Amino acid sequence: MSTPDLNLLVALDVLLAEGSVARAAKRLQLSPSAMSRTLARLRETTGDQLLVRAGRGLAPTPLALALRENVGQLVDQAAAVLRPVERLDLARLARTFTLRAREGFVENFGAELVSRVSEQAPNVRLRFIAKLDKDSTPLRDGDVDLETGVVEQTIGPEVRAQGLFDDRYVGVARLGHPLSPGPVSSAGYGAWRHVEVVLQGSEKPPIDNWLAASGVVRDIAAEVGGFAAALALARGSDLIATVPERHTRALRAGMFWFPLPVPLPGFTVSLLWHPRTDGDAAHRWLRGCVREICAA
Predict the structure, then answer these.
(1) For residue 113, how many other CB atoms are within 10 A of its CB?
(2) Domain locations in the chain as residue ranges
(3) Where are the beta strands (DSSP E) in the chain?
(4) What are the Cα distances from residue 88, in Å, to 41, 85, 118, 120, 280?
(5) Which end of the chain has fewer CB atoms at under 10 Å, N or C?
(6) pLDDT tens over the chain, length 296 residues
């Protein structure tokens, strides 16, 4: 039995990621003709066309779609095996890490994380960007180092996840609201109009289904795309916002909050990363910093 050319895995990974012979050739620093010959070898080896003409571009076949994630993981794992082990010197580490998170994470944990990182690794910079969807492509492509979020079915199967903290939903209203200082009954909670949060690119939590099971129906007056907007409306009106407790602690400062009169299922906020960085000592160190701060 002949030994397969494992270099073809690297070429296949890039071809499937780029969807273009020309772009794959540029990324691998090959000529387009050499890349075309490699694609021909891949087709012969797999017995499948892998990429077929679709308009001006190339579209993956069903086999290519099935192989894409596995091939990427194999290439990353091989690269990790061959990467030389280096002793991490935090004092000399110079690197920028990109963290993607929903609003509330930076407000609650960002300052302490920056302080911890700056103290241990003064040449490391943290770049925080907004998480607007559940697409795991930025993690896979290396554009994002870490993400936080609730693990859902839409997350890529290759993404690593580790729980950071448990959270629950609470009700929030302005100071001086007729519901304050509490306690708030189910009748009182349901009597006021509400602002609902629907996060872009995320599965909508079935809050109203859970409430309805206990006979509580919310009258939704406004719908917004984030926690900060919901709390701003509640702060300036008599609307009630229902938001995660820990994730919005800093955002709801100076407001009246109360446990929901109907117990809702809790959830876990997790730290997400791509397996290619499992063996990266600097990445492991940063993951540890995030976990410690969120667990405090």
Answers:
(1) 21
(2) 7-82, 95-159+272-295, 169-265
(3) 51-54, 57-60, 95-101, 124-130, 146-149, 160-167, 169-173, 193-197, 219-224, 240-244, 256-259, 267-273
(4) 41, 9, 16, 12, 9
(5) N
(6) 466 677 888 888 888 888 888 888 888 899 989 989 999 998 988 888 888 888 777 888 888 888 877 787 777 777 766 666 567 899 999 999 999 998 889 999 999 999 999 999 999 999 999 998 878 888 888 899 999 988 875 566 678 899 999 999 999 999 999 999 879 999 999 999 999 998 876 667 788 888 888 889 999 999 998 999 999 999 999 999 999 999 999 999 999 999 999 888 899 999 999 988 888 899 999 999 999 999 87
Instruction: Give CA–CA dist 19/59, Å, rounded.
Output: 7
Which amino acid does the sequence have at 252? R
Tokens 């890349």, residue located: 35
DSSP bridge partners of 98: 127
Interhelix angle 111-120/281-295, nearest 10 degrees: 140
* pTM more than 0.85: no
